[in-house]
Amino acid sequence: MKTIKLLIIGLLFLGASSTQAQVSVNVNIGTPPPVVVASPRVVIGTPPEWGPVGYDNMEYYYLPDIQVYYDIRLSQYIYFGNGSWIRSSRLPAYCRGYNLYNGYKVVLTDYHGNAPYVYFNAHKVKYYKGYKGAPQKNRGEYHPQNAPKQHHDNGNHDNDNHGKEHHDNGNHGEKGNKGKGKH
């Protein structure tokens, strides 16, 4: 008897819940909007000023002269050191004097991933130190202020100027002109 009561209560419960039906109507007039599919390669960063023109959507450069990769998306150099591949926002110490504007950049157009160095052995043979492919034009011009800051000794150690510049305007107080220079 208990089972029949439970069965009847269950049926009543199901019947009550099924009476609350939802109706949904969609009306589209005209042509549907176009479907936009995003490119699978997402470029986060912008190519550096020293990068070659014409490759805005690429992911990596290989710099054969110093055997370093550059990740354009993350603005990071990738180089081998201490037994592993290192990512850094700066070139390694042994490359600090390297001029990125003058060096050749191999644009890796056929690699899409996170570890271009898996092909390092092939890259270092194909793009050896000193490799020059087709001529390249940099995105920006090289200016000395773009170069790494280096300390230069200009020989002005203590000349009693103490940061003041000396300008010679010709007023040396000669006799007859009362210090106003020659006219």
Poorly predicted regions: 30-40, 148-183
What gap, in angstroms, lies between the N and C termini? Answer: 131 Å
Gyration radius from CA atoms, angstroms: 36 Å
| String of helices and strands | HEEEEEH
Report on this model:
With 183 residues, this protein is low in regular secondary structure. It has a domain at 60-129. 13% of the residues lie in helices and 11% in strands. The chain has two helices and five strands. It has helices at 2-18, 120-126; strands at residues 60-63, 68-71, 76-81, 84-88, 106-107. Strands 4-3-2-1-5 form a five-stranded antiparallel sheet, with no helix packed on it. Strand 1 (60-63) and strand 2 form a beta hairpin. The chain is elongated. The protein starts with a helix and ends in a 57-residue tail after the last helix.
Question: How would the blueprint of this fold be written?
Answer:
Layout: H1 2-18, E1 60-63, E2 68-71, E3 76-81, E4 84-88, E5 106-107, H2 120-126
Antiparallel strand pairs: 1-2, 1-5, 2-3, 3-4
Sum up the structure in keywords.
183 residues; little secondary structure; 2 helices; 5 strands; elongated
